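tl;dr need the bound structure. longer version: we got a ligand (zinc ion) that a collaborator sent over and nobodys looked at where it sits. i said id run it. heres the input, straight from their email, havent touched it
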Amino acid sequence: MGNDWKSRIRQNLEHREDIWLDTLHNTVFSRQSNPYHVMFKLAGCSYEDLVQLVRQGGIEDTLKKLRFAGVYLDHDEFKGFKPIVRSGKAIAATTESFANPIITGWFHGSSGGSRSAGTMTCTGTEQLMHLTAYAALNAEEFSLGGFPYVIARPTLPSIAGLLFCLLYSRIGCAVGPWFAFGGRLSNSLHYRILTAYIVALARWHGSRAPFPRHLPPNDFSPVARWIARQPKQMHRCALQAVASTGVRIASAALAEGLDISGTLFFSGGEALTDAKRRAIEAAGAEVFPAYWISEIGQIGHSCRQMNTGNRVHLFRDTVAVITDPREAPFSNSKVNSLLFTTLLPHAPYIFINVEMQDAGLLDEKRCDCVYQKVGFTQQISGIYSYGKLTGHGMTLVGTDIVHILEQSLPARFGGSPGDYQLVEQEGTNQTEILLRISPRIRIKSPETVQRYLLNSFRQYNGGALAYRVWQHSDALRVVFEEPLLTKAGKVLPLYLSKSAKDPDSVP
Ligand SMILES: [Zn+2]
């Protein structure tokens, strides 16, 4: 297994510069209405200039110069929350203006969150082949051939569960069971039917993708029980789940005295914090993070040797990443923001220096693994998300939440901005979303506020999914305590626990 997949990746790396230049020629420079086209023009950079810059200094060096010259998108510009203005000129654009105009896709999914029209990702056949190549690398690095590949992910509208079923079946792994969750039968029936239909279709075409088994509400113990029943060998099975779900499964095993030691947890969708890692390792399992951005695809994975912190090999054939130090929104902390640029012609979106409110550190470290050998020498460590809630792999943007906290809640229950605060923190066995309400506000039942808040989230694209997943996991709690203050004495509506820090990489 794997040589064809590897040569595909090696070729992309070898011709990385030419591929990117071609992609930009076809998607940006030949299209006058493309917003980047206008940015390049205002920056005084022609296609020929770009070619020269890349030949002289490489892609990353060119991207740093472009960032300085105004060719970039900050997060709110990409999401359409604020206008794009460069050199005093407004550039008309919506999120869809950045969708790749030259791909044909068939696999659409909603990203975990965000307002506006939501970010619909379109995964073309080429993109799927590419993701399959990464799955094959992963299977080789972790020798996934000999034991079950279990999935604990929601059904549609989240595409992740389905995608892992298809990718890992395709490369010959023993995929299944798929433990699905995401709402009660009454509010998710249509998605359950659609998911089952797609699995049936895939099976008809020869895939061995499993049908989902639905978990009872707020109960992950059936997964732990299933794993504990597998024969005890070095690895019982691999488990694909976001970090919070992984923690719930590990905690369920500990609580019931089930032996799930030797399980390989693969986490993605939210930062693997030290607390989450410890909780999973307490059950005798190992955990390895992946790095995905729904608008791009998979952009990194950890290897066998990365058993601390939140570190991955960066998939440099798919993306180029530079860092941009800035102040995080809704806080007063400095972060090392990551800017992403897509390189391949089949990327769902064309990104040039796009900020996705993720922070981390870039470095090159010697490593002896499958990823290193194929050419992924660059690594990102200490990855975490700022400016948005990402609990349980769901994403809600700060601006949406701030609107609810500062306007909707005071209007409905009384009080004013500063009386309500949403805190994302590491709970005892999962990431908790805590709504702190000043005790000065007289509210009889916390349940009423909780219900109101969950329903408010539903109005936003991605919020509906967060609603189902958070309800399933019982992850949202209401407490009557004064909101937390910053060192400067400010009340920030959104208070994010400082997450994943990679101890060996923080200067
Ligand atoms: Zn490695």
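gonna send this back to them w/ a short note. The two ends are 40 Å apart (CA to CA).
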